[in-house]
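Module 6 notes. Inverse folding takes a fixed backbone as the condition and produces residue identities as the prediction. Think of it as a translation problem where the source language is geometry and the target language is the twenty amino acids. Below is one complete input and output pair. Work through it position by position during the lab.
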């Protein structure tokens, strides 16, 4: 999201890798902070996932940022990147 915003502010076309239909569960940072603060008050231990349960595709994210910035710049589509995620836990 930050890359899209920076590019649009600079007047540049951001690149969407692949077809833009890839989805993620985007979570607002204040909601993550709130979940962490609430967890401090509970007597629970372990790893927890924080999410909305709502999938949003990259095109929808880009369109939202474009609209918020009142931009007319279209994104360009690039090659699909191979995801190389490391296993964080366990």
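Target side of the pair, the amino acids:
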């Amino acid at each position: 999201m930050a890359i899209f915003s920076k590019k649009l502010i600079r007047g540049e076309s951001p690149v969407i890798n692949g077809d833009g239909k890839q989805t993620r569960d985007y979570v607002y940072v204040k909601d993550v902070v709130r979940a962490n603060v609430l967890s401090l008050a509970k007597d629970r231990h372990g790893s927890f996932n924080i999410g909305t349960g709502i999938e949003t595709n990259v095109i929808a994210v880009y369109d939202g940022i474009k609209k918020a910035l009142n931009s007319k710049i279209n994104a360009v589509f690039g090659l699909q990147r191979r995801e190389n995620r490391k296993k964080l836990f366990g």
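Reference fact for the lab report: The mean pLDDT is 89.
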